[in-house]
Automatic annotation (TrEMBL):
<feature type="domain" description="UspA">
    <location>
        <begin position="1"/>
        <end position="146"/>
    </location>
</feature>
<dbReference type="Pfam" id="PF00582">
    <property type="entry name" value="Usp"/>
</dbReference>
<dbReference type="InterPro" id="IPR006015">
    <property type="entry name" value="Universal_stress_UspA"/>
</dbReference>
<comment type="similarity">
    <text>Belongs to the universal stress protein A family.</text>
</comment>
<protein>
    <submittedName>
        <fullName>Universal stress protein</fullName>
    </submittedName>
</protein>
<dbReference type="InterPro" id="IPR006016">
    <property type="entry name" value="UspA"/>
</dbReference>
<feature type="domain" description="UspA">
    <location>
        <begin position="155"/>
        <end position="276"/>
    </location>
</feature>
Length: 281
């Protein structure tokens, strides 16, 4: 039984992410938690209005959000008719990150699936601020789905790695399950000028092989260049369906998330992006 959390602001991007999730886990017994965090709506309204009390405003928004979530579930149950799927609605008077974190911990969530941008995001950016915050602060794998992406089975997966940091078995099991379902190739891309690996790198590479028994694994190396260029070129050359990266202390992804925006360094991803969290949970 898989537990999937899907944050939604009821935007087109969020609806698209839900449709992708239902397709991805079409054949698997899955509980989907649709979460809407509405604290920002309450406080945003109160800044511009002196007439409504916070409790009244909170109650009004909570009622509306629950109605929207229940309507969403009714629509999906009516259109999809999948007996393997169960839907739960959560209206949370918290920030998005807090609501997602609490739901992850309460229901032992396996994966978060969300759109790359919310309804207020600039259309020219790759990832909206909410998506990046979830990447950074929630200790659970996150799969971000671009609004323009048409669903395809993730048969070709790119996994850039330097083998320097140990992986978490639970995170890799999630990836291995997808590989088993879709008979996927996983292209491990090592960006380095050095062919010889350290003992630690050899151990981590071996762990990766052992933890992905259902993947068609290939190990490739490219000389050091702009890492983003290497990733984007490989995506194009191999017609990749899913990009996987690991967020951990001192990793390339952490550097992107904390020191600059993803867009500033040119990582413009137009395919599903799975962020594994190599952080204590």
């Amino acid at each position: 039984m898989k537990t999937i959390l899907i944050p939604t602001d009821f935007s087109e991007n969020a609806m698209h992410a839900i449709d992708y999730a239902l397709q991805l886990y079409k054949c698997e017994q899955t509980v989907f938690y649709f979460v809407h965090a509405y604290a920002d709506e309450v406080y945003g309204f109160l800044k511009n209005s002196a007439d409504t009390s916070i409790s009244e405003r909170t109650t009004n928004i909570e009622i509306r959000v629950k109605e929207l979530l229940n309507e969403l579930i009714s629509i999906k149950e009516e259109k999809v008719h999948n007996p393997k799927h169960t839907y739960k609605a959560i209206a949370s008077f918290e920030s998005l990150v807090d609501a997602v974190n609490d739901t992850v911990n309460l229901f032992n969530i396996d994966l978060i699936i969300m759109g790359t941008k919310g309804k207020t995001a600039n259309k020219s950016i790759t990832f909206g601020s909410h998506t990046v915050q979830v990447f950074k602060y929630v200790k659970c794998p996150v799969l971000a789905i671009p609004e323009t992406y048409t669903y395809q089975h993730p048969k070709k997966i790119l996994f850039p790695t330097d083998y320097n940091l140990p992986y978490k078995r639970r995170e890799l099991k999630l990836l291995d399950t997808l590989c088993q379902e879709f008979k996927s190739e996983v292209h491990c891309l090592h960006i380095s000028d050095f062919e010889d690996l350290s003992m630690r790198q050899i151990d981590n590479k071996k762990f990766l092989e052992d933890a992905l028994p259902n993947a068609y694994l290939s190990f490739e190396q490219t000389a050091v260049q702009n890492r983003v260029t290497a990733i984007m070129n490989t995506i194009d050359e191999k017609a990749i369906d899913l990009l996987v990266m690991t967020n951990s202390r001192h990793s390339f992804l952490e550097d992107m998330l904390y020191r600059s925006t993803i867009d500033e360094i040119g990582l413009k991803i137009h395919l599903p992006f799975l962020v594994l969290q190599n952080l204590s949970r």
